Amino acid sequence: MDITSILGLLIGTVLIVFVGITPAKLGNFWDPESIAIVLGGTIAAAIASYPFGRLKTLLKHTKILLQGKKYNIGELVDTLVEMAQLARQNGLLALEEKANEIDDLFFKQGIMLIVDATEPEEVRILLESDVDAMLSRHEDCIGIYQTLEARAPAFGMIGTLVGLVNMLKGMNLEGEGGAGDIGPAMATALITTFYGCILAHLIFGPISNKLKVRNEEELLYKTIMIEGILAIQAGDNPKFLREKLVTYVSQKERQRLLDPDAVSKGKKGKEAAEE
């Protein structure tokens, strides 16, 4: 489970409420009309920008934000190397039984394509087309939050303008509603800008960025998968295949994937030295 999204929201809220505003003055920042303008206007802009078919997927994103790192690159590389060894020993047809054990439909589809002797170029085209479609769907979802992030400050400014107009219209320098009331009225007008900034930079912006991270993780996972499947079809040496696939990850992760036993021994040796 990835709690960074919740942790970031909590830290931001605590800093704003308890350090910036302070609980004693929290009532100064409560204005239902301003909330209605900013939140309602932002949601209305999203509804006007996207069909309901896309908007109804927003609830699923909470699970994506909290699920943690879903894709295990090491496990994928091990599976592909094992399949390469099996294919070199018994031929590509031997992978059919192995493919039936795979839960990932994309992975299973790729293996079945090479089992059916599909041309390598066609396999690449089919799998990369699937990835392109996935990226398009993800960009649509991320775009919704980017729209919300952009619209929230705009509606905050609209609320501020509404407040200023009402303040100036009701101002009477000679009587009630004179210069002495400008301060409280101005504060009320500015609250909507505050709400807009909070929504944009503490909620919608972080969600958009986190979804981008999840998108990049899945793209890397499927890229490694495609290259591994094509290498198996080409009959690459399993050892070479492992070295080829780990080039997609960081140096530290690469060392672990190439020689997990050595990394484990290194950690044990370090612990023994410290003792």
Explain how this protein is built.
The chain is elongated and about 95 Å long. The model is unreliable at 262-275 (pLDDT under 50). Helices cover 78% and strands 0% of the residues. The protein has helices at 4-21, 32-49, 52-55, 61-66, 73-90, 95-99, 105-115, 120-169, 182-234, 238-245, 251-258, 260-274. The two termini are 33 Å apart. The longest helix is centred in the C-terminal third of the chain and has 53 residues, at 182-234. The protein is mainly alpha-helical and 275 residues long. It contains twelve helices and no strands. The chain has one domain (31-57, 70-260).
The biggest beta sheet, please?
A: none
Q: Using DSSP, what is the number of strands?
A: 0
Average pLDDT metric: 85
Distance between the termini: 33 Å
SSE string: HHHHHHHHHHHH
Beta-strand portion reads: under 5%
Structural class: mainly alpha
Helix share bin: over 70%
Shape descriptor: elongated
Unreliable stretches covering 5 or more consecutive residues: 262-275
Number of domains: 1
| H/I helix tally | 12
Radius of gyration of CA atoms, rounded to a whole number: 28 Å
Features:
275 residues, mainly alpha, 78% helix, 12 helices, disordered C terminus, single chain
At a glance:
This protein is mainly α and 275 residues long. The protein has helices spanning 4-21, 32-49, 52-55, 61-66, 73-90, 95-99, 105-115, 120-169, 182-234, 238-245, 251-258, 260-274.
Topology:
Blueprint: H1 4-21, H2 32-49, H3 52-55, H4 61-66, H5 73-90, H6 95-99, H7 105-115, H8 120-169, H9 182-234, H10 238-245, H11 251-258, H12 260-274
Helix pairs in contact: 1-9, 2-8, 2-9, 5-9, 5-10, 7-8, 7-9, 8-9, 11-12
